[in-house]
Amino acid sequence: MKHLLATASALAMLIGLATAPASSEEKTAWRLFVSDHAASVVHALDMETGKTIETFDVKAPTSLYRSDSGRSIFAVQGKGDVISVLSSGIAFGDHGDHGDIKVEAPKLLDVAFEGKKPSHFVDHDGDIALFFDGEGKARVTREADILDGKPAIREVVTDAPHHGVAIALGDDVLISEPNTDKPDELPTGIRVVDRAGATVGDIHACPDLHGEASSGNLVAIACAEGLLITSGDGKIELLPYDKALPAGKSTTLVGGRGLQYFLGNYGPSAVVLIDPKSEDAFRLIELPTRRVHFTVDPVRAKFAYVFTEDGQLHRIDVVAGKIDASLKLTEPYSMDGHWSEPRPRIAVAGSRIVVSDPLKSVLHIVDAESFKQGDDIALEGKPFNLVAVGGSGETH
Q: Which range is the signal sequence, renumbered to this chain (predicted)?
C-alpha cells in the first residue's frame, strides 16, 4: 500500500509539472525601419537603445510600408522596378488571456516582387496587394506565404498602365480603373474582380482616385467628390464631401486604430477627420502653415499627429477635433518645389513619436505622454521614410 501511495504521489507531481505554466517574463520591443532619401539602404534601429541593429542594401531609394501584423516590412523601389521584403524580427502570438512576443534579428528575405514602377502597397487581413504603375497590374499574395519564402502570386490586370491601387478583400480584389482617354491622369473608378478574374457588378465611379486606408472593418478610397466606403460585404457606397467644406478633396488617407475614423489631407493647409458612421462625417482642422506629413497614434487612439512646413509637430485630439499641443522640432521645410524632395516623416514607436529630419541627418524623439522632446538619434545620410514595429508580450 505504501508503495502504491508513493507511486501515486510521484505521478501527481509529474502531472503538476507538466501542466504548470512555463516561466515567463514581460518584454517590450520596438524597432524603427528607416529608408534614406538618396541612398539605397534601409536601417533597422532598436528603439530601446537608439542603436542601429543592421543596415540592409536594396536596389534603389525606397518607400517603406509595414504589414498589419508588423512581421514584415515592404521596401517599394519605384525607380528600381522591385519590391523587397524584410522580416522585422518581431512577432506576436495571441493566447486569449495574454499575448506572447518573439524577438529575433531582422533580415532581408530572399523574396522580391519585380515589375515596372511599383507604387502602392495595401495589406488587408494578411492579403497583400502590390500595384505596379508601369504595367497596370496588381500582384496579390499572402503575408504568411511570403514569410515562408513561397508566395503564391495572383495577378489582376487593368486596361492600361496608370498610377493605381488594388485592395484584396477575401476572394475579391478592388482595383483602380484607368482613365482610358488619358492614362497618365488619375484613375476614374474602382472595379471588383473575383478569384476567376471576372468583373463583379458595375464599375464604381471615383474620378481622381488617389488614397486609400482601412479602419476597423471599413475601407475608404478617396475620390474627387467624396470617399468610396466598403466593409467588404459587397456594398460600395459614396460618402460625398460635406457641402459646408471649402472646395477641395483628400488624396491621402490614414485609418484610425482603436477608434474607427479616417484622417485625410484637405487642401495644402488643413486635414479632415472623417467618421463615415456619423451624421457630422467631416470635421475640418485648419493648420497654421502648409502640411508636410501626418499619421495616427496606434497606441493612444485619441491622438493623431501632423508636421507642418514651419518645423512644428502638432498633436490632434481626434475626439475634440482640434489641435491640442504643438512642438517646434526642426528648421522650416518649405513645401515649395518638387513633391518628392526630402522632408520630415512621422512614426509612432510605443511611447515615442519619431520625426525624421533628413537635411540634418537626425531623428527627433518626442515623448508621447508628455509631448516633450527627448534625445535625438543621429543617423548618417538623409533619413526619410519611417515605419515602427513592436509592442509588449510574454517570453517563455
A: 1-24
Q: Is the pTM value of this prediction over 0.85?
A: yes
Domain covering 27-114+287-396: architecture: Beta Barrel (2.40)
What does the pLDDT look like over 267-295, one tens digit per residue? 999 999 999 999 999 999 999 999 999 99
Q: Secondary structure of the chain in the HEC alphabet?
A: CHHHHHHHHHHHHHHHHHHCCCCCEEEEEEEEEEEECCCCEEEEEECCCCEEEEEEECCCCCEEEECCCCCEEEEEECCCCEEEEEECCEEEEECCCCEEEEECCCEEEEEEEECCCEEEEEEECCEEEEEECCCCEEEEEEHHHHHCCCCCCEEEECCCCCCCCEEEECCEEEEEECCCCCCCCCCCEEEEECCCCCECCCCEECCCCCCEEEECCEEEEECCCEEEEECCCCCEEEEECCCCCCCCCCCCEEECCCCCCEEEECCCCEEEEECCCCCCCEEEEECCCCEEEEEECCCCCCEEEEEECCCEEEEEECCCCEEEEEEECCCCCCCCCCCCCCCCCEEEECCEEEEEECCCCEEEEEECCCCEECCCEECCCCEEEEEEEEEEEEEC
